[in-house]
Design goal:
Helix content is 55%, strand content 5%. The N and C termini lie far apart (39 Å). The protein has a single domain, classed as Orthogonal Bundle (Arc Repressor Mutant), CATH 1.10.1220. A two-stranded antiparallel sheet has the order 1-2. The chain is mainly alpha-helical and 128 residues long.
Length: 128
């Protein structure tokens, strides 16, 4: 890992939502968080970095992102650069805001594993 943080502390409300999503999908929190992160990065507006606390679950970054850590961090960094933000100063807060927003958004859209299919943009779905 090339960035300066090894652990990620989630928002307390988002931690509860993550647990609920895990119950209904049977996916592990790290996979749910990865999906949420990507979902948030695809949103056109930037997340509010001040909106979330850090009183929830703390997760090791490598557990969270796995062997694809560099890819996920590159996506976050590129999004920051596209928005005129400095990744060297605000990477942790911005990463955390996207992660929290993404999991929070998923919580309102998933009542089971089958609902993940609905999150895939139509242009990426394979024809049956």
């Amino acid at each position: 890992m090339t960035d300066k943080f090894n652990r990620v502390s989630l928002d307390s409300d988002v931690t509860n939502k993550l647990e609920r999503i895990q119950e209904v999908t049977q996916l592990t929190p790290n996979f749910i968080a990865r999906i949420g992160l990507c979902y948030s990065l695809n949103e056109p507006r930037a997340p509010n970095t001040a909106q979330y606390d850090t009183d929830g679950q703390t997760i090791n970054r490598y557990t969270l992102l796995g062997e694809h850590d560099a890819l996920y961090m590159a996506l976050v960094r590129q999004r920051m650069l596209n928005e005129g933000r400095n990744p060297d100063e605000d990477l942790y807060d911005y990463f955390l805001a996207h992660l929290n927003r993404g999991v929070g958004t998923l919580s309102g859209r998933l009542s089971g594993l089958d609902d993940l299919q609905e999150l895939i943009p139509d242009e990426l779905k394979q024809e049956e």
